[in-house]
Design brief:
The complex is a heterodimer of chains A (337) and B (276). Chain A has 15 helices and no strands. Chain A has 337 residues and is an all-alpha fold. Chain A has two domains: 75 residues, no CATH class; 242 residues, MetI-like (MetI-like fold), CATH 1.10.3720.10. In chain B, helix 4 packs across helix 5. Classes of the chains: A mainly alpha (337), B alpha/beta (276). Chains A and B meet through helix 11 and helix 12 of A and helix 2, helix 4 and helix 7 of B.
Chain lengths: 337, 276
Amino acid sequence: MTSRLRSAASVAASVPITLFGLVLVTFLIGRVMPIDPVIAIVGDHAAPDVIAETRAELGLDEPLPMQFVIYVGKLLQGDLGRSVMTSHTVAHDIGQFFPATIELATVAIIIAMLIGVPLGVLAAVRQGSFTDRAIRVFCLAGHSVPIFLLAMLSLLIFYAKLGWAPGTGRIDVAFDGLIDPVTGFLTVDALIAGDWDAFRDAVAHLVQPAGVLAYFSMAYIARMTRAFMLDALAGEYVITARAKGLSSARVIWRHAFGNIAVRLITVLTLTYASLLEGAVVTETVFSWPGLGQYLTVSLLNADMNAVLGATLVVGMIYLALNLMADMLYRLLDPRVA
Amino acid sequence: MTAVVIDNLSIAFPTARGISHAVRGVSLTIGTEKLGIVGESGSGKSLTARSILRLLPASAQVTADRLSFDGIDVLRASEAEMRAIRGKRAGLILQDPKYSLNPVMTAGAQIAEAWRTHRKGSRRAALQAAEHLLEQVQIRDPQRVAGAYPHELSGGMGQRVMIAMMLAPDPELLIADEPTSALDATVQAEILRLMEDLVSRRGMGLILISHDLPLVSHFCDRVAVMYAGRVVEELRAADLRRAGHAYTRGLLDCLPTLSDPKVRLNVMTRDPAWLT
């Protein structure tokens, strides 16, 4: 056990290096972009002395290495700069927008997992049958249809035609601003406030974008589960388990699935990470005020502090989840010493 | 007494180039005795043995005039009836414990699972039984081995765990499919002696599958020699020297002996007539 902890610790030790690389790359992207942050603030027609003054104020007249040192120094204090667009600090903005994305991604990954894993197992157990083929086609569709198309089709069918789902946004305007933001997750906050109508409305708004994202991720999860399970079911230990007289449910879930569970955790974690960073399109179609939308709007407005801040946060989340997957793998799989 | 009756068993697999006949009309009966099934790779010996437990690949097409375990028709039995035979009445030991033990379960948990599947008892009782079984397969430190994962055990240890697991529900028949092929020569003998000892003491039947003719004849009462999906010869182990079939004699002739060393080993010439 101690050797396992040590190996997990060695993974953790690599984090600062990766983190430094992430910061450096983000910083450089911000500097090589053909966007002048000064112009973005003062406008095209500002007087030259105003431009020079603002440039000095932002520290942009320093040499590049010095700028990087200043940037890192501010980062360490949690200062991501100020957004031109919202005139709040970027850190504050991210605190506002990110919970919406986390809420969406979390619900999506839970749906995707609860459907994708059993489907993948079923397809593997019934390999070559009609069930298997049906599941594979269903998953192929989820993975190959572009997500914006899926999102718009879903809006067209369930909102416009059938009227089953509410439209875009996180909650109906009637409830807007009525719920005290405690956690930032609207559904949870509505529960805390004890407002059942708001809760129902928030959930109803969540179902569609989460469903679209879930379908996309579910397809990948089911495919990986199927592939892992086929591999596991071909193992000799499965014959041993059957020869012991175990029920097929126990052979499949305890023995075959037990062998792939750790690998699946990695897949699920990375899928979750990609949902957190990659819900841009879905958030745009559903006007979901999350980090993806914040990033897109900032980019279109040349709001570089906001873009860099959001990119950095996404990168750190990805890094953290990757690290978690790696640690879990080392802690849970007895074969990794 | 338990008897396995196999009468005119055929096993075929559909392939891209038509149907491949792996076993072609095998008939055998096994009682409380030690039967060895010998043959080269692909002769159908493993498939024949596994068909008794109905543990063949799903694509296998099995037909037989009779295939029964203690009067139970294996071909027509329900899955639940088969589960009552598997493990409980007949155990199966596979070749390489590196692959045949579940890599993410401890040895103790795997043995305890076999015990609990067929006997009433608590988790604790099952683990105690597992340690007791590990003692019976002559493991000196049963507690440590019970808590170890398969990759932490040597091949010989792994095979002892496998034997303990298959003996846990006290079966009447043990099928050992090349149980020592993956082991070192010195460990091979130990494992075989252990198996023979346990089988005799418990009054069990044993089917020992191997490609090693002298080894099998040493440990078994009777030997069936298989070639290309058929039993070409069946004889008492003691009579092996008087084998009638050219294939059996050819196999024996290929072996080097200490008393009669050869510069070049004999190579068997195969007679196409053996196939028919």
